[in-house]
Amino acid sequence: MTKSCAYECTAEILTDGGVKLSKYKSSKSGMTICIAEADGPLVGGYLCVATEAHDDDGLPHTLEHLVFMGSEKYPYKGVLDLVANRCLAQGTNAWTDTDHTCYTMSTAGDEGFLKLLPIYIDHLLYPVLTGSAFVTEVHSINGEGEDAGVVYSEMQTRENSGESLCHLSMLRSMYPGHCGYKSETGGLMKNLRESTTNEKVRAYHKEFYRPENLCVIIVGQINAEKVFEALEPVEERIANDSERTPFVRPWQTPVPPLPESVTLEVNYPSDEDEHGLVIAAWRGPLANDYSQLISIQILMDYLTDTSVSPLNRELVETEDPLCNQMDYTVIENFESCIYLHLSNVPVKKLQEVKEKLFDVLKNIADGNEELDMERMRTVIRKKKLYILSNMENNPRSIS
């Protein structure tokens, strides 16, 4: 490590897939760099910002779009993708989740990556956020008097779908009280029309898009020293920023408890009225309790993965099926959420599905139906092989 380098290695580990994973933190800016030295010709970058919202204005989502509209040093739309293409990258992309926003890039080799990275971070930390960009990307009224805007159009296509309405209702019930996990971070159309403003977006950026709140994850064959050298101009600009205020980490308030079980019936528009869907959700262990989380995933695989699984056997693979498909998701919030999603349930059997589902689970919990430990061993072995295969064939999944 060079004397002028601001980065200190805070953790280092060799993963089961043989990939060396190192974590560095800057003493100047507070920015975190994680490097996974995975084999392969591509270098992937994931610029992750922890974000928290307590309303449905969609500020994380709108800001994600506006970041690509130019920065103070590169104040033109499309510059980032233009530079990315010249650096042998297939453009750039991003996603917004409940507790973070992540910006992605992937280049052939490290040379283009090192050129693109400081420009990308400049867009994140110093975007222009102009009013004209807000009108174009978020919401406006077009010449025909219709609502327009890229963000608005995205939400319009999914806000009133059965899956979105039921999922949002589930989160509202699962995390009551003052809690960011129940917010629609994409933004509801009513909020995008009436309450989301560019001033709010600017304030949101100032609060969360800070170097102390930015983690840069790099996956591929790249030298850490070269990364630090490429980021030196960024570090200098951050150090000279006179407008920096004390940083308050997001997600520090306790998650309100779930006082009782809740049953909801959600009506949603559909092309037909003969089928619906059922979501059954539970609060799970803390996100840092990895052994509990992986145990729950293995248990859910055991219950749902094949036609002989208990839930599939009783609800799907019958002469008179109660649904035609089921899957599960584990949302790794600080206090996690595990939910089952049952599709194409006959409307007349919605109540029957609920009763049958809990009967099957109760039979297993009470020991009336013993766990097939031979099949459980198979499920665990398949899980291990999947993780190792994924590490080998798609090493960027480690991010």
TrEMBL record:
<dbReference type="GO" id="GO:0046872">
    <property type="term" value="F:metal ion binding"/>
</dbReference>
<protein>
    <submittedName>
        <fullName>Uncharacterized protein C05D11.1</fullName>
    </submittedName>
</protein>
<dbReference type="InterPro" id="IPR011249">
    <property type="entry name" value="Metalloenz_LuxS/M16"/>
</dbReference>
<dbReference type="Pfam" id="PF00675">
    <property type="entry name" value="Peptidase_M16"/>
</dbReference>
<dbReference type="InterPro" id="IPR011765">
    <property type="entry name" value="Pept_M16_N"/>
</dbReference>
<feature type="domain" description="Peptidase M16 N-terminal">
    <location>
        <begin position="52"/>
        <end position="145"/>
    </location>
</feature>
<feature type="domain" description="Peptidase M16 C-terminal">
    <location>
        <begin position="197"/>
        <end position="374"/>
    </location>
</feature>
<dbReference type="Pfam" id="PF05193">
    <property type="entry name" value="Peptidase_M16_C"/>
</dbReference>
<dbReference type="InterPro" id="IPR007863">
    <property type="entry name" value="Peptidase_M16_C"/>
</dbReference>
